[in-house]
Amino acid sequence: MPAKVSDSTIRRLSHYLRILEAMARDGGGTVSSVQLAAAAGTTAAQVRKDLSLFGSFGKRGHGYQVAELADRVREILGLGRDWRVALVGAGRIGSALFEYADFRRRGFHIVAVLDVDPAKIGERWGTLAVEDVASLEAALEREGVEVLIVTVPATEAQAIVDRAVASGVRGILNFAPTQLRTEDGVFVHDVNMVMELEALSFDLTNRIPADVGDTAD
Amino acid sequence: MPAKVSDSTIRRLSHYLRILEAMARDGGGTVSSVQLAAAAGTTAAQVRKDLSLFGSFGKRGHGYQVAELADRVREILGLGRDWRVALVGAGRIGSALFEYADFRRRGFHIVAVLDVDPAKIGERWGTLAVEDVASLEAALEREGVEVLIVTVPATEAQAIVDRAVASGVRGILNFAPTQLRTEDGVFVHDVNMVMELEALSFDLTNRIPADVGDTAD
DNA sequence: AGGTGTGAACACTTTCACAGCA
DNA sequence: TGCTGTGAAAGTGTTCACACCT
């Protein structure tokens, strides 16, 4: 609800939540911003600023109630409900994601799996059958899908996404290494593993610590 | 080599590179910063600023030579060589990554696969055999591994990483949803798919476009 | 004219530092 | 006293606008 919330803040909230849930399992009680920051690898001021964008959840002199704060953060992130998800692309990555327990644990339920490959169509995945991507619209409508996970080749991703958006999907988790174009009000988040490896390659090549011989300017 | 290069710049360079390579396949020639920006979903000024951090690669009035610029960006990112990578965690995600052609195409070669599960140890993966993670150090040294991909459960990730760093690994691509602590000069990049879904959940819950009824402040 | 390279202006994010409540 | 919540300061990243080269 606040006017401006940065992406980094949201990422950190997600991180805080994971930590808070671990703390809750270990007994809970209270945390201070200092403790939470240490666990999340950030600063206490950052933790307080992030939280204060959404309300006053702590008690001065005492810190935050672990269980209660976890509830609040879940609520902020919109995790107080289940999300119906379709998976397009029944390849290796799609299959790994389908089995990924953390998605379900967080309320993201894969309710349809689709592919173009005739060899895959009809395969049983858990309680689902892989469907022909030709009937994407029908599947999305039938299952009331709101979020799409895209693990098809880059060349096919845009067409699939256009059809899904036309069918009412407003959230996309994109694993295809391509820049998706969508209308306003549709949210795309990219997971680009090659990009991360390339960033690592850059770091290893250029960000050598001072003591290894980076004296030249 | 420049003093300060932001992470966002590196991500964009990686993105530019993918676009430039596609353009090179389509015949090459020249690109202007306006064209490259349009393809990458950013601004022309941003493209020029990003590139100018590393040198002057364009010709005023003409733009950039596609093939040459691609070479330069590859060089900047440290992609002018091969990287020897070990994969720890031979589960679903590990297996998907092992098959992921884009890694190899970019020069990231998985030269060892390790797991704790006795049922998996000894399995043949391509030309490799899955090894016992107990002999991690031996495998890393034998293969001259520089980069580790971690797809083990969160609880085991830190111990593995500590051992790998002690064996000389300086780059880590971490799929475990946990905050890894490492010494200076070791670079960790996280791929956190649950976090991306949670960010999507936040967007869908809170960033509703104006016309759908977000008038309240 | 056309399009790069870049200092300067602007916008956004993080950190500081402290008032104020338990 | 202890720790939150938050304006103000500092720091970073992005956009602007134009000099300059071809």
Structure description:
Two copies of one chain form a homodimer. The first copy, chain A, is an alpha/beta fold. The first copy, chain A, folds into two domains: 7-76, Arc Repressor Mutant, subunit A; 83-196, NAD(P)-binding Rossmann-like Domain (Rossmann fold, 3-Layer(aba) Sandwich). Helix content of chain A is 44%, strand content 17%. The first copy, chain A, contains nine helices and ten strands. The first copy, chain A, has helices at 7-25, 33-40, 44-52, 66-76, 92-99, 101-105, 136-143, 154-166, 193-206, and strands spanning 30-31, 64-65, 83-88, 108-115, 124-125, 128-129, 131-132, 147-150, 171-174, 187-190. In chain A, the strands form three sheets. Chain A has a six-stranded parallel sheet. Chain A is globular, with a radius of gyration of 21 Å. At the A-B interface, helix 1, helix 5, strand 9, strand 10 and helix 9 of A face helix 1, helix 5, strand 9, strand 10 and helix 9 of B. Chain A binds a DNA duplex (22 and 22 nucleotides) through helix 3.
Q: Largest sheet of chain A, order of strands side by side?
A: 7-4-3-8-9-10
Question: How many individual helices of chain A?
Answer: 9
Rg of chain A: 21 Å
Please give the share of residues in helix of chain A.
40-55%
Biggest pleated-sheet summary of chain A: 6 strands, parallel
Specify the structural class of chain A: alpha/beta
**N-to-C series of helices and strands of chain A:** HEHHEHEHHEEEEHEHEEH
Shape by Cα distribution of chain A: globular
